Amino acid sequence: MTTLSNSKMRPDFTIIAGMVRPGSWVLDLGCGDGSLLTFLKGARGVKGYGVEIDDTNVCAALEAGVNVLQSNLERGLRSFGDATFDMVILSQTLQAMHNIEGLMHEITRVGKEAIVSFPNLRYAPNFKQLEAGRMPVSDVLPYQWHDTPNVHLCTLLDFEDLCEQVGLVVAERIALAKGKPVTDNPNVNGELAIYRVKKINSALSGLPQE
After folding, report:
1. Which of 17, 28, 92, 129 has its CA 20 to 30 A from that of 106?
2. Which residues on neighbouring strands pair with residue 25, listed in sequence order?
3. Does some domain include residue 210?
4. Average of pLDDT values for 93-103?
5. What is the largest CA-CA distance in the chain?
């Protein structure tokens, strides 16, 4: 994995960039204001589109020069053909989706590979808050229980089970805590998980190079 540094960017942006080959055709689902695609354009020379439902975010992405389509991910990706993109990215959006299994099939249909990142519910400080009788609140889980958009929180092991269930292989996994990679028991010590996945019948490729 190639790590690209930019102190003004979210820590997972640099990890995601290291998983994307230069010049790739990218689809960023739940792209927000387009910050990730803007970063990837500068860092990796990617081309592509964002998909976002929120009006304010769509306007912000367009103002930033990002090609963005306004659409509800819950309705699928029927407007995109098979293997249209080199990489499909679902960055901290998975936990807000209802039909996660269907979406996992879709992102690996329209993309040759996919990157999925999500907050890890089993992260030790989250677990301590649960043991104390409270829903966890943290940098990557900033919402209170009554106003959170998150409907399907999971752990790293849960996600890997899902990948196996839907016929995907994990090509790469990075867990972060406070913005730094962790390798010791990532299911407990990782705050945010970032996975690169592909269909199980696809040959695993080498890591992207500069």
Report:
1. 17
2. 47
3. no
4. 92
5. 48
198 forms beta bridges with 169
Handedness of CA 84, 78, 155, 117 (dihedral sign): positive
Give the range of the structural domain holding residue 87, as residue numbers without chain letter: 11-199
Number of structural domains in the chain: 1
Confirm whether 140 is domain-assigned: yes
Domain-embedded: residue 208: no
| Model confidence pLDDT, tens digit, residues 22-77 | 999 999 999 999 999 999 999 999 999 999 999 999 999 999 999 999 999 988 89
Give 40-44 contacts, CB < 8 A, sequence gap 24+: 40/16, 43/4, 43/6, 43/14, 43/17, 44/4, 44/17, 44/20
pLDDT, averaged across the chain: 90
pLDDT value of position 10? 81
The CATH number that applies at residue 153 is 3.40.50.150
